[in-house]
Prior knowledge:
Helix content is 25%, strand content 30%.
Amino acid sequence: MSLSTSAPAEPAGVVEAPAISIRGLRKTFGDVVAVDDVDLDIANGEFFSMLGPSGSGKTTVLRMIAGFERPTAGRIQLDGVDVTAAAPFERDVHTVFQDYALFPHMSVVDNVAYGLRVRGERTKARRERALQALETVRLAHVAGRRPSQLSGGQRQRVALARAIVLEPKVLLLDEPLGALDLKLREQMQVELKQLQRELGITFVFVTHDQEEALTLSDRIAVFDAGRIQQLGTPREIYEQPSSAYVAGFVGTTNLLDSATSQWILGVAGEHAVRPERLRLSPATDTEPAGTGEVRVEATVVETIYLGTGSRVHLRTDGGTELIALEQSTGFDTGEDRGDTVTVRFARADVVSLSSGS
Ligand SMILES: Nc1ncnc2c1ncn2[C@@H]1O[C@H](COP(=O)(O)OP(=O)(O)OP(=O)(O)O)[C@@H](O)[C@H]1O
């Protein structure tokens, strides 16, 4: 796996240790290899996401960074200091879980102040700081309520306030928005991103939601079976997926196997092209393919209206299934099933996928 995508650049002459540095990290549970030889550097102030399907090992990596799990092999450094064997409380990180883990019998402000109490801070000071943290997540007005008197989104924000009041260098977030409905989730995504920018804290975010990872992150690690399949910016991951796995997991894509590539593109090897790159025109368009363009005839299998546009499912003469995403302007997708259309796309939009992954 290549680590060529570097973290945000440092000013010349400044050598700063990464917020988190992981080398050769491995974790097994009996016969199960949960995490397999992971190398990773996360920069200070970075919004870093670990993305992958259930069971791909991302939570286990997070738990090892937090100190809740001991690695089977490898080492973890925080700010240049080896913490592989350190207890969770000895690490300058804080974890926000999906289930919030708020104390139901305490008021919101007492929930937020709890960590400061454990640290032995005086009552007045910790109340002030807790209220300040609640202000940051815009919840000072519900400070006296119990968690049960809050909405899901508000509870999530209390959990965040409880974490940021401790001013950790690193915030670990394990599917923190997983329990929220879509609308609230989207709203919280914006708030989370703003909060991270304001505070400058390093965020390590675990999610199985590719859209969430693309929206929020400076960089993303895509996990599969305990390994990082690709590491890069959202744009790199989306536009230059390194394998069929990443191309298929992050967004929808048209995968062309080697035989199909040979037939449509004139070259062997596996390739991918995103649905929004396909342009459709009626079969009456007999113009040959232009320079750097691919042209193929296909039959409309199904057209699905999406509001902002349409998703058109197609099948070529050779039996290859393709998906085209049409904006509501342009081609009139009022085409009937069974109609023949011309599909065009630029060669520059075709990504060659590494073999064997
Ligand atoms: N405490 C444990 N004991 C045994 N196996 C475990 C334990 N924790 C995790 N595993 C296994 O390790 C693998 C990776 O799990 P992990 O929770 O890290 O994946 P994940 O990508 O975070 O999944 P999810 O999104 O479902 O949380 C899975 O096969 C899981 O069953």
